[in-house]
Amino acid sequence: MPEKKVAVLGLGITGLSCVNFLQQEGYQVSVFDTRENPPGADKLNAQVKLFKGPLSGALLSGFALIIASPGIALATPALQSAAQAGCEIIGDIELFARKLKTAAYRHAKLVTITGSNGKSTVTSLLGEMAIEANVKVAVGGNIGIPALDLLAPEIELYILELSSFQLETTHSLDADIATILNVSEDHLDRYASYQDYAQTKQLIYQQSKKALFNRDDLLTYPNIEKQPQISFGFDNRLYGLITDADNKIFLAKEGTPLLAVELLKLSGKHNWMNALAAFALGETVNLDNAAMLHTLQKYSGLAHRCEFVADVNGVRWINDSKATNVGATQAALCGLSETISGNLHVILGGEGKGADFSELTQVLAEVKGSIVCFGKDAEKIARCNKRAQRVENLDAAVKLINSGSKAGDLVILSPACASLDMYPNFMARGDHFKTLVNSLKMELTP
User: Fold this and answer.
1) How many domains does the chain have?
2) Is the pLDDT of residue 132 over 80?
3) 386 and 280 co-located in one domain
4) How far apart are the first and last CA of the chain?
5) Does 330 lie in the same domain as 251?
6) Long-range contacts of the stretch 78-82 (C-beta < 8 A, 24+)
7) What are phi and psi of 35, to 5 degrees?
8) If you average pLDDT over every residue of the chain, what do you get?
9) Residue 110: its pLDDT value, please?
């Protein structure tokens, strides 16, 4: 039997998962990393050769199989040379897909999720639904745990978040259902055009038995004939929304109400769509409906991404500290005022890194409550709305809004800025916000 030799490009958590998997499969593994001190190098065993520095096409051409990190573009000259020499270039998700077809894993169901925004929320929400339904589930891919580390014979359902980079090197997934949640301009430094980026997303449908698409986003529509398809959207068709005689809005299926949106802890119209997408995916893989609806009522969101923090005297406080750029804050605020009975209050600020804050003018005009700015670029942001107030820090912002808010209002920290002027990272900023909000609750405790 010829020696099985494979090259892994790029270390880190995913690279190490590839090395461990391939060694278990009997391959002789060599690792290539352009960094002088690649993370995880100390965890490689003596059987693994490590090559550091610029990638060599001549050297890589000596391997029949190359496992490339998603962060390495296929257009890289060394990879182009290897491909022309006949090398097969795949990623860790393709390895996962091939293993899933073997006898020990064939029983498991698979859901694959991509999109420009919201894919991590839908992936984790669906995972929580499966847990609530007592299904043995494994969640990972582009979020959390590398796909190869999820493999276990007892797992009944795999849920993978996939980036466009991962899809470039994946061909053999046979998912029970796949979805593209939405498509917006992203990663144009990697792709030749916006159309090229959108077409890469479409690869997920080509590897699935069924497709779930967004009726309000034409770029998510599958282009495969005769493939079973379902959809979600803001209208009242299939998975959608309905409004009752009292103007109460419900998540619905084929016009039948499922859950009042006011019962969701997730805030914002975009999260109504995320909830519908997760429910539709869950129904396709036969998750219990009652368990899914119960999960929707308690799911608070991913940390620092429109994360529900607390209800203080009827005021909902939301931590969106991960909104470190103008676009993220626009997405969080757009239409948010329409989803609540009271006023929307927003806290912004930090280090804008040269951002054009004028793009916030329209969404801030929808804010009827307080607009409070702090941090290095507070003054620049405040110019976007004449009602904006400047304060010294986050403590002062929370104190000011708390004094002027009432039941039915919603307060969101959505900075539109990096945090490095005052915090080590956006997580530290979000954690400080949560501490401040929870201290308000403590003050109410008798």
Assistant:
1) 3
2) yes
3) no
4) 75
5) no
6) 78/54, 79/9, 79/55, 81/57, 82/57
7) -80, 150
8) 94
9) 98
Residues 107 and 39 placed together within one structural domain of the fold: no
Q: How many helices (H) and strands (E) does the chain have?
A: 14, 20
Cβ partners under 8 Å of residue 212, min gap 6: 177, 178, 179, 229, 230, 231, 232, 277, 280, 281, 284
Q: Which CATH number covers residue 234?
A: 3.40.1190.10
Structure tokens at 349: 């600020």
State the Cα–Cα distance between residues 243 and 264, nearest whole angstrom.
16
CB within 8 A of 437, min separation 6: which ones?
A: 309, 310, 312, 317, 319, 398
State the residue for tokens 């998912």.
Answer: 175
CATH of the domain at 28: 3.40.50.720
Among 204, 185, 199, which residue's Cα sits nearest to residue 281?
A: 204
- Domain that includes residue 62, residue range: 5-90
- Check whether residue 101 and residue 240 sit in a common domain: yes
**Is pLDDT above 70 for 38?**
yes
pLDDT confidence tier of residue 1, bands split at 50, 70 and 90: very low
In what helix (H) or strand (E) does residue 423 lie, and over which residues does it extend? Answer: none
Model pLDDT, residue 328: 86
8 Å CB contact between 17 and 146: yes
SS3 category, 438? helix
Packing angle, helices 426-444 and 394-404, rounded to 10: 40
Per-residue model confidence (pLDDT) at position 117? 83
Is 229 in the same domain as 289? yes
Residue 88 CB-density burial (10 A; 0-12 exposed, 13-18 middle, 19+ buried): middle
- The closest alpha carbon to 346, from 403, 398, 418, 383, belongs to 398
List the strands of the sheet with 307-312, edge to edge: 307-312, 315-319, 410-413, 344-349, 371-374, 389-390
Buried b (16+ CB within 10 A) or exposed e, 159-191: bbbbbbbbbbbbeebebbbbbbbbbeebeeebb
Query: Are residues 423 and 432 in contact, defined by beta-carbon separation less than 8 angstroms?
Result: yes
For residue range 189-240, what is the model confidence (pLDDT) as tens digits? 678 788 888 899 999 999 999 999 999 999 999 999 889 999 999 999 999 9
- The Cα 36–Cα 377 span in angstroms is 36
- Specify the pLDDT at position 3: 60
Given a contact cutoff of 8 angstroms between Cβ atoms, the answer to whether 38 and 11 are in contact is yes
Task: List residues with catalytic annotation.
Answer: 119, 142, 187
Q: CB neighbours of 227 closer than 8 A, spacing ≥ 6?
A: 205, 208, 209, 210, 211
Residues 283/179, Cβ–Cβ less than 8 Å: no
